[in-house]
Amino acid sequence: MTTKYQILKLLEESDGKLVSGGDIAEKLSISRTAVWKQIAALQQDGYRIISEPSKGYLLQPSNVLSAYEIEKRLTTHTVARPVLYFPTIDSTNTYAKTHTELENGTVIVASHQTAGVGRLSRKFHSPEGQGVYLSILLHPDMIAMADISTITLLTAVAVVDTIEQLSGVRPDIKWTNDVYLHGRKLCGILTEATVEGESGVIRNIIVGIGLNLYQTYEDFAPEIRDIAGSVFSETGKKISAADYVACLSKNFERYYLDEHFPANKASFLQKYKDALFFLGQTVQVISVRETYMAVAEDIDENGCLIVRKEDGTVAALNSGEISLKIPR
Ligand code: BTN
After folding, report:
1. Architecture of the domain spanning 67-275
2. Gap between the Cα atoms of 64 and 95, Å rounded
C-alpha cells in the first residue's frame, strides 16, 4: 500500500479523533513534510481532511471514487477483482475490449468518459463527477449467442436492485436496456461481445453500465432535459459512487455466477418483468422496416418482448433493431 493510503488508513482508524502529524510520521518512518504533502494529495483527491495547527488532522465523511474506496466495500469473490479506476477515460467498454487479457470479472470504472458509447453506436454523454461509468469484462465458459442479450436483462435487474438498496426507491426498466424512474432515464446498459471468427465461440463479453448520479434537470443538455434524470433528481439522495460500484458488483455476481446463469434465467426474468413499466400499455414499435402501435403483453423465456398488433397478430420482438416509444 502506498504511503498516501497508509496515512488515509490511520485517519480512518482514529475513531473521530485528531491524529498528529508527528504520530503519523513516526508510525510510517517518514518526515512531517512528507506527511503534509500526502495529506495535500488526499485533499486533492477529494478527501475532506481538517488540519488543526499543532494538533493534527481529522478525516470528515467524504465521497471519493477510487479503486481503494471500492475495494474497501467489496464483498464479491470474482466480480471487480480486480477493479481498475480511471478519473477520465475515452470509454470503459473500449478499454475492456482492448484489454481482454484481464481477468474474468475485472471491472473498469471511470468518473468521466470522453467518448462514451451507447446503443446503436450513439454517443453516451458521460460528464465528469456527475455519474459513474463502468464495464464488467467476462470470459464465459460456453454461452449461446441468444444469451448475450439476456445478460443485459440480468444487468438491468442488478442495477434496479442496487439503486433500491442504496436509495430506498426501486426504479423501473424500459425494455430492453434502460433504467427509468418517474419516466426519466437514469441508466443505460450496453453489452458487447468478441467472437472467434473460425469457431464462432464467444470469447469475451463486456457489460457497460452508465448511471446518472447527481445531475439536476438543468445539468442536462436541452435536447434530453425532459427525458433524462439522475438518482439525485428523482430520489433526492446523493448515493456514494463507491457504494454503488461495490453493491452493483455484488448483485451482478449473484445473478451471473452464484445463481449459475443461464440456469437461473426464469427467476431473474420474472424480476425483470416485475420492473417493466409499460406492460399492458400501447407502445409504438419502430423497426427499420415499419412503425406500428401494439400492446406490450409479456416477456418470453428468451427476453423477447411479446406484442399484440392492432390486427390481433402477435410478434416476439428481439432488441436488435427495435426502438420503443411509450406515449406519456
Ligand atoms: C445506452 O443507453 O444506449 C447504453 C449506454 C451505455 C453506456 C455505458 S457507460 C460505461 C460503458 N462505456 C461506454 O462507452 N458505454 C458504456
Report:
1. 2-Layer Sandwich (3.30)
2. 22
